[in-house]
């Protein structure tokens, strides 16, 4: 009997010691637990990569970036004449084609935009984010977006049979990756469709692959490049190649570049570039963007 | 036999002693800052996912906040904040590790507002700085709320990006945490 009682006390003692240990374990060092939490969070939280490119256009074509939700982005773009005109034509600055446009972020994934290029060329597009590059819980090596555009030619033209002949369409898949703070690269398989072509032997669908990248020089200055390789070739036209610099200030992004294209929508710059770099058929150009906040997100009240 | 009881008694005392310590915690604390300088646009950001804990006994306190969780009226400003100033991919969090030096002044059993002061290390953009921050602890129905308002000298933390006059280099910061 006595022995049994002793065993019970021992057991009780054991239980108490265990609770005591647990209680001591509860006596945490918050600094240590925060460090451990940070380590855990790195694995359990998804860190989305931001700012793969500085703005929604790489140079002539779309970049993987969207404008933020509720933000209106006014874009004015110029492409001057070829610099091989020399001093007589002020290295091309006498002539300019211009596109005025506005882009709007409907939500964080979808943006739309419309623009007009001189010569009565209207274009409209929509771009949607399918995948976002991330690390942590979800490890996604690339960001993927799709973009589609329609181009409407309003120029007077008596050779057209149907009104639909005035329309062209383009579709693009944008695949981009930010390798580190300095280098981002993008691939853009593209199809451009012409409703109407001059001869029956001319194809209606044109396939191409866009390649581009950015190299960060400082926090606000980036070098960019963009090249579109055409799989469907038409005599008289060449591939578009551009190099540029992005300069960012508070609410503006300035893009200055040299390009052999004068077109500022998917159809004209990818498929209808005729000037060659080899003969200095290069145009100076710029895109200027200014953002305006249209719809403010709900403010957190404190 | 007596020894056994003695040991049992001691262990009981120990456990009781440790139990009387309480850790208050929240994951939905709020922090906002206003660094509007000469710029026409207000430079304001806020975050309502502050992770904070404190111990009632010794006043040990931590605040931790995800930089990418700061929201701005202008999405472009948010990009610049993360990309150019905070380097939030490299340094995803900012935190404060310290002690409420006069935690004894707070009576957790009695409703009221108590003036306190916290001393510790504030780490932003990977840089730590010793700071003393005044604030209040308000006890309501046994639950504490901590409020603090202070200036963060940005030049002591943000490196690699120039802070001109457009941004106020003393960011007025407000923290409100309701603990469970």
Can you describe what's shown?
The complex is a heterodimer of chains A (302) and B (180). Chain A is built from three helices and 14 strands. With 302 residues, chain A is of the alpha+beta class. The longest helix of chain A has 25 residues, at 2-26. Chain B has 180 residues and is α+β, with helices and mostly antiparallel strands. Chain B has two helices and eight strands; from the N terminus they run H-E-E-E-H-E-E-E-E-E. Chain B has helices at 2-19, 75-86; strands spanning 23-36, 44-55, 60-66, 93-100, 112-124, 127-140, 143-153, 167-178. An eight-stranded antiparallel beta barrel of chain B has the order 1-2-3-4-5-6-7-8. The longest helix of chain B is centred in the N-terminal third of the chain and has 18 residues, at 2-19. Classes of the chains: A alpha+beta (302), B alpha+beta (180).
Query: Cα distance, first to last residue of chain A?
Result: 67 Å
Distance between the termini of chain B: 43 Å
Average pLDDT of chain A? 88
Specify the structural class of chain B: alpha+beta
The percent range for strand residues of chain A is 35-45%
> How many β strands of chain B by DSSP?
8
Q: Give the strand order of the largest sheet of chain A, numbering strands 1, 2, ... along the chain.
A: 2-3-4-5-7-8-9-10-11-12-13-14
Q: Please tally the β strands of chain A and state the result.
A: 14
* Pattern of helices and strands of chain B: HEEEHEEEEE
Mean pLDDT of chain B: 87
Helical content band of chain B: 10-25%
Largest contact between chains: A-B, 49 and 54 residues
Strand order of the largest sheet of chain B: 1-2-3-4-5-6-7-8
Shape of chain A: elongated
SSE order of chain A, one letter for each helix or strand: HHEEEEEEEEEEEEEHE
Strand content range of chain B: over 45%
Low-confidence runs of chain B (pLDDT<50, min 5 residues)? none
Q: Looking at the structure, what is the overall shape of chain B?
A: elongated
What is the subunit organization of this protein?
heterodimer
Uncertain ranges of chain A: none
